[in-house]
Amino acid sequence: MFYVVFVILIIFSVFQLLSPIAPWLGLDKFIEVCDHDSRLLHYNIGRFNLRNYQRSSLVALVYSVGGLHLPAAGRIKHDPNTAENQLAPYEWVHNEKVYCAYFDTEQGKLFIIGYFTLIVVCLGTILTKGLWYKEPLLVVIAYWVFLYITFFVYSNPYAGPHFASELQAPLWAFFALVLYRKNFKELTFFFLCLFLAIVSWNNVSVMQFFKWYYE
Amino acid sequence: MNRVSTEVKEYTSPVDGDQQITSTPLSGFNRLCWRWLKRGFPPILFILIGIFFFVIYANTFRDTRLPGWTHGPFEFDCGCYKNFGTGVWTISTPGDKITKHFFCALLYGPIHKGLTGIIKGMDSPLVCSFLVSVGIVLFGLWLYRRTGRSGIVFPILFLFGFSFTTWYVASVWESRSFIVLGSVILLVSLDRLVRKPTFTSVVLTVLSTVTVMFITIEPYLLSLVPFAILTRWKKIGALKMLL
Q1: Where exactly are the structural domains of chain A?
Q2: B-chain residues within 8 Å CB-CB of A23?
Q3: For A116-125, which contacts have Cβ atoms below 8 Å and span 24 or more sequence positions?
């Protein structure tokens, strides 16, 4: 409790000190911004359901790592009136079935298989080596991921995958802290290099798509 | 004197399943060079990886016309971060972004000015590329020590750098690039707190939480420190923890 009060006190003291030169750092403005955001995004505890948790978990755990290499039908809608390609209104996290389109491409299939293997291997190692008590940071990271997902379920389950950048470091640290304890180090290294090739291949094609789309 | 640091181990091909290791003692200047290489090479390698990703991020959307506002993954927040970087907006400018992302408003300008002073003629969001690259270097250094100098840190580091959101937010004007760096700082301090739950660790973690809060106001992050302390309740003692 002291800790929470202490952190909040530091933040508001700095804001209050700077408020004469930066009016939007004043306490009144801060409350106004929080109120505006909560009204705009309709924060609601009614959003705590399994479907929203699934959606936010997918964003946090899959899209953040593997990108969004989905076939054109998954994210581009052809408008016959203007003969132009447009972003589909229900792409991304709006449509949870879209992620199934990963299976339509070679790198998509490889990515899903690789990521699934990575998760299974990590969970297996945690269970067999009892890492949940040997490595308390893993528990803290798991809690961090859960917090993130819960916050976005509550505030905005449709938040874009770029929001998940906060979880990148904890997620990869989690995998590294588990995998370095594995017995077959050479095999693990080889698997990670292979997965790296798939992920970078996947995301290079995503960036190519972005460039093509903008131009 | 550490025996390992004063010797070069020459590995020869295994004979009848056994590995023959012959040692050559080193002295003077060679010893110093070897020690420097052993200790200094991994950090230099991590810095090189950071520079590699900086170049990748800065060139991803180079000469690509980016729209001011689109939806979903193409969100650019009306160019406000670009305005902070280029000095069009300052902390005196009215807007909720200053409240929510105070450090972006405060630091994007000076960092952008410094970077464009060194690297001339680039219109890329160098600030964002730079911040994530610094995060990658820090992450690599920490993880390398943390995993007992394990080699798997290298593919993990490249996976981190090539992960979609990291790549994306480092290539466009976004506050999330600063958040990547903030999360690395928070992760490192949480690790220290979990391993050495001392008063100094608590203070450092509180300061890193404050830093992250200045980058982005995310109140749920406040519960990370109490939770981290809770995982060490046996070591700290329940009574001490409550106090």
Answers
A1: 1-41, 43-214
A2: 92, 94
A3: A117/A191, A118/A175, A118/A191, A118/A195, A121/A179, A121/A182, A121/A191, A122/A174, A122/A175, A122/A178, A122/A179, A125/A178, A125/A179, A125/A181, A125/A182
